[in-house]
Task: structure prediction
Amino acid sequence: MTRMPHPPSPFLVSLLLIICVAAPGFAAAKKSKAKTAAPAKSAKSAKADKKSKADRGRDSKTAARKPSARETRAERAAAKREERAERGRGGKLSKRERLAQARREEAARRAEAARRAEAARRAEIARQAAIARQRAFDKAIRDEVQTNILRDDATGEDPEVRRVAVQALGYHAASVVVMNPRTGQVYTIVNQEWGVRRGFKPCSTIKLITGLAGVVEGVIDPLIENASYSSNRMNLTDALAYSHNGYFQQVGRRVGFDRMSSYARQLGYGERTGINHVNEYAGRVPLFKNDVGMLRMSSHGDDFEVTPLQLATLASVFGNGGTLLTPHLPRTPQEAARFKTEVRRQLNIPQESLRRMLPGMIGSVNYGTGRKAQDSQQTIAGKTGTCIGAQGVWDGSFTSYAPVEDPQLAIAVIGRGPDARHGFPASVAGQIYRALAYRFGKTNGKPSLRLTPEMLAPRPKVDPNALADTEGQEDSDGGDENATAEDANGSSRSTSDGLKRVLLPVETRPTGVTTRPSNAPVAVPSKGTQPPSSDVRPRRVLSNTP
Result:
């Protein structure tokens, strides 16, 4: 049976007819729309199309152009440099390259040497300028002293004593006072402008007042000190002899400001001595100090000012047994014949306290900081002082009396600037004692103090090589500590120890210590430790010199 195909659907026939009729209309509409949109192209689009065509043409020309000779050489040089660098990192350089490198290194060395030479030249110029300024200052201050000496009124002075004192002083910046510690008679004052009318910082000579106040007030206990020798702890004698700063700072702090100031005023500080010279300076005593200020006040004499004449009267107090005298210069032979001792005040200080101070003062001259004043023919008691005073200039002092068994002379020397250090004041006093020993070195009378061989010939109880924080390392409270100083031979030296200063904590003081001292004994730490001090400076002290 044959299968007949189905007739087409009427729907499909209709769809085909519609497409055939509508196709020509769609084509005509599209063509008309294209013609209408063509004129709408903007001038900007046309310009962009034109530019892109020009760029394409230029790029094609550039790509076609050959590089110039200069560009080629630059590229080759860059390639060679890169090749040499690569070869230097991983391979050997050629001979030419090694020579070039050596020339560059030599040029660098020469440039560095020239730079260093220029720096050294400038440093040397600065050093020479500093030395020249220091020499000019030294000369100016010494010339000032020589001018003052020429203006001195020597009427009534002992001519021999003055001649010896002037000769011992020489061309140096200092003042010298020589007097009788028993009567107060002044034999000579060399450089009277400084000796009577100008004040100086007492430096370590203030330790005589600090130590005496500590003994009288019971701060320094002799029994405790005597028992401490076995542990190498310092006692009063060695503290005075070696001028130990920390020891006296502890003593002064425990005595207190009020009591310390009271002893200073009793011993003549802050008031005129009453000498028959015009325009005498009264000196100065500080009005107030806190705990930290008390440390340096007790060891360095901060804010004190004294005259050489006041230092001589201070030494006379120890020489005559506790009497503060009025120094006097007899102007005529008749006045000298009728001379009478004038007492300013009799100090309420036990003789035993004065004797406690004596071995340390003798030890200072025999084996301590005042060894340059030593005289083999007589026993001398004294105390040195060295520190930076007013305007950053060094002050150096030495106060003393001799012979200890029968005091005949009291000598005080204060130097300034170049002649304040290295024991110069003690050296001047020693020359005077030795030159006048034939006249004043005899023990004609009975000693006023009961002296024992231990007092007259003390020996150190501590190892001097273990000491630190002593007067030789004093610095101080002003000035440029890195400035150079010029000694008598013209060589430059530093005025500073160069060590860092450390402010250590201070123990809290109980209420009322400034007016009522503590009775606790002073105990200085043994080797390797430092007492509480405002400045700590290690120093090696030379061993005992016979």
In short: Residues 226-232, 474-546 have pLDDT under 50 and may be disordered. The longest strand covers residues 394-402. Strands lie at 174-179, 186-190, 323-325, 343-346, 381-388, 394-402, 409-416, 484-486, 492-494. The domain at 129-494 is CATH 3.40.710.10 (Beta-lactamase).
